């Protein structure tokens, strides 16, 4: 399969927006300066240059990254102290991947006449005693051979840099060592070898894709060789051995190199916005070339017919008939092939292209038909068939993307018939003797064809990485403090005998949405985090009984009242006190799983919310929502709350309703069964109240964040 080899860069597009002019007569003792960090990205000489986002690599430093910096005086010596404080190996850290803060007892770095600077990345205390640039470079040695646990991508360093004439000096980092990943996802028996200056570390990701990771010296060109072999087929189809051998791949500082061993790059797949998430190949199986295919190369083979195969077979034949077919398509008892050959040894897409490519299913064909429309048809000459064929372009009704397919007909015995129409194979058998196919004969539709006929194939990309709960939650946790909505609400509480004032900020979505929203990518490509958060905003979240930290399959009042959590909080509140967080931290699911400062709201938090917002009802996707909008100076801020009703003594299923009920952390004032205070927003009158609800009842949670006001 064509496989990607690239240098993993930590490219930076960071800048300080402050661009103050420094006058020519600035005092000799210096002036405060700030630093910008960039990485030199040189063009490459071999292979296809790809944007690093396509290479699944970040351009930016991550929050918390640090580099070390030394100051060199006019005599070429390292400055040891400034105002009696250490000035060697100064650590600059970025809180957001953009700005750089000085982590030092020195309050600011100065630019002084004759001063210059040298820096390296990532920061290490091992450089504390360096006195020359040579000593710095001597420490920039290759990290451990086992790179699987290495946090930093590589060492980077700067040349000695003089200050610029404005308030920002740019430190241009170059790679000293570059990390390279080779991805292989062979489905066949496979053996291969990769040679480089350093041993590789092999890891396997959640999609069973093999990663071979190397370190190369990035200061001078290095070469990499890739070779191997794999087999196609089994005892039914016959076994053929395929081989590849690519040598002399040049890897240099800051460069990308692309090497393909066989198959098709998964990033070429066309996203038609289909509900299933399936993407379609832009070309037929067998139309691919042996080298990297950019957009121009793909366009040049778009009319190529490619491999014509019988259903479940892997190799082309001179004639396609009942007698030449590997299976008996008419005898159910002796049929050798399964009813679905997706990703089996009989799926030629999986066998030839590997990775996550496969034949489409009958359902995939139906989905395609339902969601595209014909845009145009062009007649072109096909050298493969020696006659004219039709190139039909289809446009997605969902996102407007297009895909073009050549008419190809199908092989019956030694002849190609109906070449003016499209015929494509699916992985789904139809009855015993036939398979379900795609055709444009009279109109775009599915059809049934003899399994022994020779038919072309348009592959699809189906295998997805489904993010775990922890991975999904991590995205929210990274952003949730910044997403908190300020509706202009403050409260004063007594802590240790003193009154303390807090801002009460509200989450834009219910707790647990991050575990409910489906999040899938192909081969773990980068997630659009903004789109993911938007999905969270438009969904329900997790429904829990009071004090529970796991969703039950069913809410049961009797079981809850006899549970450990009910025993732990036996009392009913005798007063109407609402400014109490009765749930301890270990029973407040928000405190357990969200950053410090986030809680299940108290009953008073709900009272304050209702006093400071205007509530309107909205219908979104045929469902009821309530928009709570701030007042006065906060009229531009709002949160949306879905109408989720409640669940009592019933199965815990996704439930939309007309009214909203939200859980508090405060025990309710009531008698009889244990109750809690809860927020209720009534749909019919758009009224609201903080009343009581049974603690065993399944309610949603809308977290709050307390930010202390100094």
Characterize this entry briefly.
This protein has 710 residues and is mainly beta. It has eleven helices and 43 strands.
Secondary structure tally, helices:
11
Major beta sheet, strand line-up? 3-12-11-10-4-7-8
Which overall shape is indicated by the principal axes computed on the Cα atoms?
flat
The average pLDDT value, as a whole number, equals: 82
Distance between the termini: 60 Å
Total beta-strand segments:
43
Radius of gyration: 32 Å
Beta-strand content bin: 25-35%
Query: What's the story with the biggest beta sheet?
Result: 7 strands, mixed
Q: How do the helices and strands line up, and which of them pair or pack?
A:
Layout: E1 5-8, E2 31-32, E3 34-39, E4 66-72, E5 81-82, E6 85-86, E7 90-93, E8 101-103, E9 110-111, E10 116-121, H1 133-139, E11 156-158, E12 168-175, E13 177-184, E14 190-195, E15 201-204, E16 210-217, E17 222-232, E18 240-251, E19 279-280, H2 295-300, H3 348-353, E20 357-358, H4 362-371, E21 372-382, E22 387-396, E23 402-406, E24 410-412, E25 415-417, E26 423-430, E27 434-439, E28 445-450, E29 460-461, E30 465-466, H5 469-483, E31 490-495, E32 498-506, H6 513-516, E33 520-521, H7 529-537, E34 543-544, H8 557-561, H9 564-568, H10 589-593, E35 598-599, H11 603-611, E36 613-620, E37 623-630, E38 638-642, E39 660-667, E40 675-682, E41 687-694, E42 699-700, E43 704-708
Parallel strand pairs: 3-12
Antiparallel strand pairs: 1-13, 2-9, 4-7, 4-10, 5-6, 7-8, 10-11, 11-12, 13-16, 14-17, 15-16, 17-18, 19-29, 20-29, 21-22, 22-23, 24-25, 26-27, 27-28, 30-33, 31-32, 32-43, 34-42, 35-43, 36-37, 37-38, 39-40, 40-41
């Amino acid at each position: 399969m064509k496989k990607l080899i690239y240098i993993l860069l930590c490219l930076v597009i960071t800048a300080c927006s402050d661009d103050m002019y420094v006058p020519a007569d600035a005092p000799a003792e210096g002036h405060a300066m700030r630093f910008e960090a960039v990485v030199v990205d040189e063009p490459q000489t071999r292979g296809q240059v790809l944007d690093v986002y396509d290479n699944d690599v970040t351009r930016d430093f991550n929050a918390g990254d640090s580099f070390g910096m030394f100051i060199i005086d006019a005599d070429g010596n390292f400055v040891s102290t400034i105002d009696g404080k250490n000035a060697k190996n100064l650590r600059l850290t970025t809180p957001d991947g953009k700005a750089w803060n000085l982590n030092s007892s020195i309050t600011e770095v100065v630019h002084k006449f004759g001063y210059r600077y040298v820096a390296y990345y990532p920061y290490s205390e091992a450089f504390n005693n360096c006195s020359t640039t040579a000593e710095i470079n001597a420490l920039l040695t290759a990290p451990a051979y086992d790179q699987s646990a290495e946090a930093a991508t590589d060492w980077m360093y700067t040349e000695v840099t003089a200050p610029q004439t404005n308030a920002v000096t740019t430190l241009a980092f170059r790679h000293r060592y570059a990390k390279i990943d080779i991805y292989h996802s062979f489905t066949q028996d496979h053996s291969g070898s990769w040679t480089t200056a350093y041993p590789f570390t092999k890891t396997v990701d959640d999609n069973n894709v093999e990663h071979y990771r190397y370190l190369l010296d990035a200061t001078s060109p290095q070469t990499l060789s890739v070779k191997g072999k794999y087999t196609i087929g089994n005892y039914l189809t016959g076994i053929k051995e395929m081989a590849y051998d690519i040598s002399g791949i040049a890897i240099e500082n800051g460069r990308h190199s692309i090497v393909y061993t066989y198959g098709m790059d998964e990033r070429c797949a066309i996203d038609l916005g289909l509900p299933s998430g399936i993407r379609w190949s832009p070309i037929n199986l067998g139309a691919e070339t042996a080298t990297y295919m950019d957009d121009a190369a793909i366009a040049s083979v778009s009319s190529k017919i490619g491999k014509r195969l019988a259903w479940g077979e892997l190799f082309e034949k001179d004639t396609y008939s009942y007698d030449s077919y590997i299976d008996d398509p008419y005898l159910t008892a002796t049929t050798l092939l399964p009813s679905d050959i997706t990703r089996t040894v009989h799926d030629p897409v999986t066998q030839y292209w590997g990775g996550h490519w496969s034949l489409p299913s009958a359902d995939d064909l139906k989905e395609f038909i339902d969601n595209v429309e014909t845009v145009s048809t062009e007649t072109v000459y096909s050298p493969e068939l020696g006659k004219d064929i039709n190139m039909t372009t289809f446009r997605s009704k969902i996102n407007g993307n297009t895909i073009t397919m050549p008419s190809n007909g199908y092989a019956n015995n030694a002849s190609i018939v109906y070449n003016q129409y499209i015929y494509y194979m699916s992985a789904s058998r139809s009855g015993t003797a036939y398979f379900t196919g795609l055709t444009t004969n009279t109109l775009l539709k599915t059809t049934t064809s003899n399994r022994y006929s020779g038919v072309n194939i348009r592959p699809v990309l189906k295998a997805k990485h489904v993010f775990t709960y922890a991975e999904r939650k991590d995205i929210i946790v990274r952003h949730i403090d910044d997403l908190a909505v300020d509706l202009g609400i403050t409260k004063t509480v007594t802590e240790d005998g003193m009154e303390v004032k807090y801002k009460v900020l509200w989450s834009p979505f219910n707790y647990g949405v991050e575990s409910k929203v489906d999040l899938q990518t192909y081969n773990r490509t980068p997630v659009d985090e903004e789109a993911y958060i938007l999905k969270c905003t438009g969904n329900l979240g997790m429904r829990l009984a009071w004090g529970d930290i796991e969703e039950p399959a069913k809410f049961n009042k009797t079981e809850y009242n006899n549970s450990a959590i009910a025993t732990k909080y036996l009392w009913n509140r005798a007063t109407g006190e609402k400014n109490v967080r009765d749930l301890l931290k270990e029973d407040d699911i928000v405190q357990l799983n969200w950053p410090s400062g986030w809680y299940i709201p108290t009953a008073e938090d709900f009272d304050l919310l209702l006093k400071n917002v205007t509530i309107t009802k909205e219908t979104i996707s045929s469902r009821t929502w309530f928009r709570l909008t701030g007042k006065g100076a906060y009229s531009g801020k709002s949160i949306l709350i879905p109408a989720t009703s409640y669940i009592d003594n019933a199965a815990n299923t996704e439930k939309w309703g007309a009214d909203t009920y939200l859980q508090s952390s405060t025990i309710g004032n009531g008698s009889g069964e244990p109750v809690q205070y809860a927020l209720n927003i009534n749909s019919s009158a758009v009224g609201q109240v903080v009343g009581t609800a049974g603690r065993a009842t399944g309610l949603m949670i809308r977290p709050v964040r307390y930010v202390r006001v100094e």
